[in-house]
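Please decode residue identities from the backbone states below.
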């Protein structure tokens, strides 16, 4: 089903749905860079089993057989705020152990979840694919802290991106959905 056929004017087609509950690795492999200029991943109600786990995303250029996981594979930056004070924070990573996107401190209580969108721009070109993200989440402090983050990153190697993998830094997912959409060009 496309948003357009669902009643009006959307721009994307749902390519894959992944129920993350019980998984330690959620693979999104239905990329179709011949048909779509970009891809979008919508995360809804994602909760790790381990309190305070970080939500990570990494890419593959071989359809999901292998995923780039080293610090030299990505560079990215983010800006975020939380509701307890006016302090904002910025981060930029490119060191081992950090992948393309991280939301720090997602809690595992039923009221603590991770939601957001990741846009994958021009994954079908053998360039450094760009990622842009806008996410929200609740911290491990009984829902007391609300985080919002936005940022972007790049897969450094010049290769086609045709799969993504989402995973928590510890444990597995207790709930959540990931939806992969194909976005047509103009």
């Amino acid at each position: 089903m496309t948003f357009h056929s669902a009643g009006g004017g959307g721009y994307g087609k749902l390519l894959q749905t992944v129920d993350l509950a019980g998984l330690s690795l959620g693979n999104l492999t239905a990329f179709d860079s011949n048909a779509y200029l970009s891809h979008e991943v919508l995360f809804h109600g994602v909760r790790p089993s381990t309190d305070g786990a970080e939500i990570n995303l990494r890419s593959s250029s071989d359809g999901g057989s292998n995923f780039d996981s080293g610090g030299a594979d990505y560079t990215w930056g983010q800006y975020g705020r939380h509701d307890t004070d006016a302090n904002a924070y910025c981060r930029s990573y490119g060191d081992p152990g950090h992948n393309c996107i991280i939301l720090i401190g997602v809690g595992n209580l039923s009221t603590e979840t991770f939601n957001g969108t990741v846009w994958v721009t021009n994954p079908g070109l053998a360039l450094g694919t760009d990622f842009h993200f806008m996410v929200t989440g609740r911290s491990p402090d009984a829902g007391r802290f609300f985080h919002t983050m936005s940022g972007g990153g790049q897969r450094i190697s010049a290769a086609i991106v045709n799969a993504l993998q989402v995973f928590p830094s510890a444990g597995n997912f207790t709930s959540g959905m990931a939806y992969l959409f194909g976005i047509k060009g103009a």
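Observation: Residues 1-8 have pLDDT under 50 and may be disordered.
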